[in-house]
Amino acid sequence: MIENLPRDEKGNSLCVPCRTTKLLCGKERCPLLVRLHAHQRTHTLLTGTELAGASPPSVFVGRYGYPKISIGPMLPPFGGDTSLLDTPERWVGRKIDDIVDFRSQLVRTRFTVRELDPAKGNRMVLRTQELAMAATPPHVDATLHKPPQGRMRYSATAQPMGPSAPLKTFDRDTVKVDQRIEKAHSDTDLLARDALSELHARGVHTSAMSRAFSVGAFGLGKRRKLVPTRWSITAVDSTLGLKLLERTRELPLLGDYRLHEFTGLDNRWSVLLLPTEWCYELIEAWYPNTLWNPHRSGISIFHSFELNRGRKGYAEIGGCYYAARLAVNEHLHRLGRQAGAVIFREAHPGYILPVGVWNVREHVRQALREPPRRYGTLEEALARVGFTMDISMKRWIANSGVLKDRMYQKRLDDFDA
């Protein structure tokens, strides 16, 4: 299912009269064709109720009906090294067709659980938990109640999902568990946030931590529970970001303005670091006929920010906010400096399908790996942003909490002692 399919002013779908040829939606390519091509690659392999393949590893924990939810392993109908299919840390530089292709090959098997404590679950729950902690793709043999079916499902938070099927039973070869994750899992006196922090310091992928977190692998023994995949992604990003921020606040200030730039999946990124105490903002500009702006005219701008004291409520902009905040704090730790950060994002029409918040996390990480442009004043740095981005700097500032605070609020330093 694709959400936000383009419609005319009367609410009628534009897809029927278009039939993929006229691009009435204004997108550069037809998202339905991208989905269809991905489906055609594997649908002939998914006709029976027996499914065998190497899970990347990958699992999915649903959220509908919570606390009565569906969970299960995800696997393709083939073996080998399938790790790329569920490792978004390796997707930077790939085309959107590649991402859809990766995900369409994974069948989302599911069975219903009523007990959120994985320790009280049945054998399939424990096997799913073990699989989620695997270091390499284990071979899985699954018996389904009926053949896989359904269309691709897209989400602003999680990666795209392929066909699904109700799971009767499954078995797997010996699972080689990631020893770093296993150590945190076996410590039932270790708080989940401390487990995540230790794993992050040891180089475990964020996606691997989210996967293990979703199956209740971390935390105090009696408090462990299954967490829907979408929630676990944001929980891990937020927890890690806040943990790093505690240390960021103790670092000396950056000495100049630095601007990092990158473009991927027709998303244009400018990450501006300010020589100030911690503050942070993500501003997103969505062009017409993109995910959060399905209309055919006008650019929609959304933002969430925090000043030095942080924020209390959930970010209006959603999980992207926490994914980018994590990436910024990782970079500041590598620099050994504290700074403010304003991230400018332009989502252009070539971004025809949502692929999940990994897009934000990994592309901001990549932008911060690029050599920065350095400036002595905020005005010089913003002039560069205005040059490289299509939207005027005046409009960016009008939609920014941090920039207006920096530019218009009087500070003690502005007055002579």
From TrEMBL:
Residues 307-415 form the Archaeal Nre C-terminal domain. The keyword DNA repair applies. Residues 24-293 form the Archaeal Nre N-terminal domain. Keywords: DNA damage, DNA repair. One of its GO terms (biological process) is DNA repair. It comes from the Archaea. Belongs to the Nre family. Involved in DNA damage repair. This is DNA repair protein. It comes from Marine Group III euryarchaeote CG-Bathy2. The lineage of its organism: Archaea, Methanobacteriati, Thermoplasmatota, Thermoplasmata, Candidatus Thermoprofundales.
